[in-house]
Amino acid sequence: MIYRAEEVRERFARRGLSFDPTVEEIVRGILAAVREEGDAALDRFSLDLDGHPVEEIPKKAWRQAYEDLDEELRDALETAKERIEAFYREEAKGGFLKADASGLLGQLVRPLSRVGVYVPGGSAPLLSSLLMSVVPAKVAGVAEVIVASPPKVHPGVLAAAWVAGADRLFAMGGAQAIAALAYGTKRVPRVDKIVGPGNAYVVAAKRQVFGAVGIDGLAGPTETLIVADGSASPRLLAADLLAQAEHGPDSEPWLLSPDRALLEKVEAELFRQLQDLPRGEIARKALERGGLVQTQDLEEAFALANLYAPEHLCLALADPLPWLGRVQNAGGVFLGEGSPEALGDYIAGPSHVMPTSGTARFQGGLALRDFLKVIPVMGLAEGAVRELSRKGALLARAEGLEAHARALDLRS
Ligand SMILES: NC(=O)c1ccc[n+]([C@@H]2O[C@H](COP(=O)([O-])OP(=O)(O)OC[C@H]3O[C@@H](n4cnc5c(N)ncnc54)[C@H](O)[C@@H]3O)[C@@H](O)[C@H]2O)c1
Ligand SMILES: N[C@H](CO)Cc1c[nH]c[nH+]1
Ligand SMILES: [Zn+2]
């Protein structure tokens, strides 16, 4: 089915994180129980939902899993880790201290002390997601990175924990894992911030524990939006749409193009490539959530893309670079069909943890600064204090805050 731009515009404009009341309620119950009962509730939910009690998996098991890996896979993991590390080393993490006649002002930048990384494991063991959160955390200087992933944790995830240099790993998933990390239990230490993607239960749990703990954002079911011109290959476009569609029936793959003939060819390709896709049924359902859209021109395609604010914006254009200036809302941008999103998922360098459900309107992909906090520092010079206190007291009285004003009067 090929939509016209008018048919999707309203839907794109209204898009936002939806709160499924049933999921919210279930999650509220899980969080409250783990907060009150600790490990007993944690094990109970883990047994009920995932068939296993929670266990901490020791580092020697990670190393063993790494050593048992096929040599080529080990090499691929190492390359991915090195590329992620190199990418995040480029991100500035310095603060500043600046002194002038009025004194000293600055920002201290400190890594968070303890971070929880959620690694999804419900429908696929996303070992790449472990690298994509743990490696930037370690580059930022986080002292203790605690991984949570649903049982039974796949050996590939354990091997990735070894490669990435995580500190501890608990086999626990869903809202109960988020609760344990946010509130702490006897076994699971409380963290300062929880990062990483997950399904609707994980996203709802992160949102509900925010405040008790920091969160990076609400990365949920994956989505991709490709803007293509007539130069793009229908075969590659179909393959890229299916690559994200296979994540889950709630994934959303979109293709926008002014070229009707291209869209028709992609439709046929999708049908053909679905035939022997192992997760074809999942992908078919996801395709029904997304779709192909014919726009008047590329300008309209970009306007719609910004309205949608996709997690991944892929520019399958003959000359994508000049269009970069049009991008306002996206979790990450992929330039040209030679830079497919699937490479970003695994090995390009930037973290694949990116905002979904339109939250790319107000945030980008996971960055080093998600693991840092900025602490302002003030040390004013005597002369400046007198003058600034007089003006500060005026502002305080304008707010009706007399004690503030008097504290400043004493300095002026
Ligand atoms: N945006 C991103 O950056 C990004 C990156 C990777 C993955 N993802 C997304 O993460 C998601 C991973 O989802 P997943 O399900 O595979 O793994 P998951 O680990 O997020 O969720 C599995 C957990 O959900 C809980 N759960 C399942 N059904 C439940 C129920 N009825 N009641 C209460 N809890 C329940 C279970 O405890 C289970 O451990 C996918 O949607 C994928 O697209 C997003
Ligand atoms: N596309 C997913 C969300 O960005 C990440 C992922 C993990 N493995 C494969 N893909
Ligand atoms: Zn993916």
From TrEMBL:
Q: What is its EC number?
A: 1.1.1.23
Q: Which residues bind Zn(2+)?
A: Q244, H247, D345, H404
Q: Which Pfam families match?
A: Histidinol_dh
Q: In which pathway does it act?
A: Amino-acid biosynthesis; L-histidine biosynthesis; L-histidine from 5-phospho-alpha-D-ribose 1-diphosphate: step 9/9
User: Which CDD domains does the record cross-reference, listed alphabetically?
Assistant: Histidinol_dh
Q: Where is the active site?
A: E311 (proton acceptor), H312 (proton acceptor)
Its needed co-factors are: Zn(2+)
What family does the database annotate? Belongs to the histidinol dehydrogenase family.
- Organism for this UniProt entry: Thermus antranikianii
Listed GO molecular functions? histidinol dehydrogenase activity
Q: What class of enzyme is it?
A: oxidoreductase
Q: Where does NAD(+) bind?
A: Y118, Q176, N199
For this protein, the record's InterPro entries field holds: Ald_DH/histidinol_DH (IPR016161), Histidinol_DH_CS (IPR001692), Histidinol_DH_monofunct (IPR022695), Hstdl_DH (IPR012131)
Binding site residues for substrate:
T222, Q244, H247, H312, D345, E399, H404
What PANTHER family does this protein's entry cite?
HISTIDINE BIOSYNTHESIS TRIFUNCTIONAL PROTEIN, HISTIDINOL DEHYDROGENASE HDH
Residues in coiled coil: 59-90
> What reaction does this catalyse?
L-histidinol + 2 NAD(+) + H2O = L-histidine + 2 NADH + 3 H(+)
How many cofactor units bind, and how? Binds 1 zinc ion per subunit.
The gene designation is: hisD
Which HAMAP family does the protein's record reference? Answer: HisD
The name this protein carries in UniProt is: Histidinol dehydrogenase
For this UniProt record, the keywords arranged alphabetically read as follows:
Amino-acid biosynthesis, Coiled coil, Histidine biosynthesis, Metal-binding, NAD, Oxidoreductase, Zinc
